[in-house]
Recover the amino acids of this structure.
């Protein structure tokens, strides 16, 4: 069952300028292996990490350097998660995370789908919140 979807879009030139102004961001956002990549690949990985956080519904317990985007032998990107970030997914019953990334025309984008093997009742409230917005 799908329990979260996230998408992010990054302007590569703007991302590169931000990194040039604040080089310490590289250490806060990326693993040592990721930091060796060119700016367009870093921008796509930043988008992937943002999309994962959105699919999770927030960043509580998630640390950027505990999320690494690596390619499979086929070239397909996937997440390697460690530490408290891996624990967050396990605690939420997330068993599969799908990732798609691309960069073209100065933009990097990523889509993430988080799935759980748990029954839907584990994620749904028995009574929806009364926010007054329903008609």
């Amino acid at each position: 069952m799908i329990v979260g979807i996230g998408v992010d879009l990054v302007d590569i030139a703007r991302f590169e300028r931000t990194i040039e102004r604040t080089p310490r961001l590289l250490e806060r956002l990326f693993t040592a292996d990721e930091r060796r990549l060119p700016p367009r690949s870093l921008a796509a990985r930043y988008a992937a990490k943002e999309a994962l956080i959105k699919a999770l519904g927030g960043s509580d317990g998630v640390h950027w350097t505990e999320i690494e985007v690596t390619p499979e032998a086929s070239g397909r990107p996937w997440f390697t998660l460690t530490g408290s970030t891996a624990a967050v997914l396990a605690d939420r019953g997330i068993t599969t995370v799908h990732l798609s990334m691309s960069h073209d025309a100065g933009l990097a984008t990523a889509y993430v789908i988080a799935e759980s093997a748990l029954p839907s009742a584990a994620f749904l409230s028995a009574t929806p919140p009364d926010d007054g917005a329903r008609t």
